[in-house]
Amino acid sequence: MKPPSSRTAFPHRHWQHDGWLAWLLRPLSALTAWHVTRRRARYQAGRRAVYRAPVPIVVIGNIYVGGTGKTPVVIATVQALRERGWTPGVISRGYGTRVGPQARVGQGELDPCHFGDEPALIARATAAPVAVHPRRALAAQALLRQHPQVNVIVSDDGLQHLALARDVEIVVQDERGIGNGRLLPAGPLREPAARLDTVDAVITNRSNGPPAPAHPDGGPRRADMRLEPGAARHLQSGACRPLADFADRTVFPGVAAAAGIGNPGRYFATLRAAGIRADPCLALPDHYDYRRSPFDAVHADAILITSKDAIKCRGLDDARLWEVPVQARLSDPGLFDWLAARLRRAAAEIAR
Known about the structure:
Order of helices and strands: HHHEHEEHHEHEEEEEEHEHEEHEEH
CATH superfamily of the largest domain: P-loop containing nucleotide triphosphate hydrolases
Number of domains: 2
Oligomer: single chain
Shape: globular
Structural class: alpha/beta
CATH topology of the largest domain: Rossmann fold
Number of strands: 15
Radius of gyration: 20 Å
């Protein structure tokens, strides 16, 4: 079975080295660099309006196009801030939805068709109020109107959304790093690699390799992240079973896996590390909408899917679907205490 995401895998393979495709597309990357530099200069010179929220804002984003693991970091950040006495809310673009002129605000179990898959997942996992709109200033304003108790906003993505003032910037990258170091389309970067030197923290989502220093001198705070899978949850019944059951062929003779995320290979590697030999492994396009089931031709007793996919599969009448949730584990135990301290100082500045 040919993966539907194979057309996106082609550029990602080329973006990891400075080969013929990168050289061919260099003139277009020069245009991207010109646009990025010109746009940032306009905001810095005050020629474009910037919204300053009455509460601190943390932006969690990336410069590498596609998925790097931001959503688990957003969830972990919201949970950690609540544990430290904050009342967080979340704003997001609402990718894949037509929001309209007014931002949408919700809490708890949200419809991914109206909010987007990642905001719906964040809302379910954290119980925090969530607002979505492509103009994040409108999302922040709507969030605070409906939930005035919110005293810190976590922005899901939006590192390049310069119309929103922010107090802390956290970049999430993975083992691909900056790829070949070139801007789109010759490389995978939305902004020059030097942008990493200007953010407050860099979290690297990795499964192996040497750990990053927690806080090197003269640069952003750095930490590694590993995504630890939990027990699988049956979509229809809500029953949970340990992952070891899916590695045991006497329990589930045939196990398949599917992932409609930015880097499906990472999810499949997580299952292999748990001893699960899934076949087939169906790599779907990021934000796959599941309006039509991709599982009709899959012969398996169980199909393991990500939490991001599970949010959209609730309407599928398929008893084989099991969600495998993951939790972010960070190498820097002081990261969220550092973040809370930064936010307290920012709140004091805003209150002046």
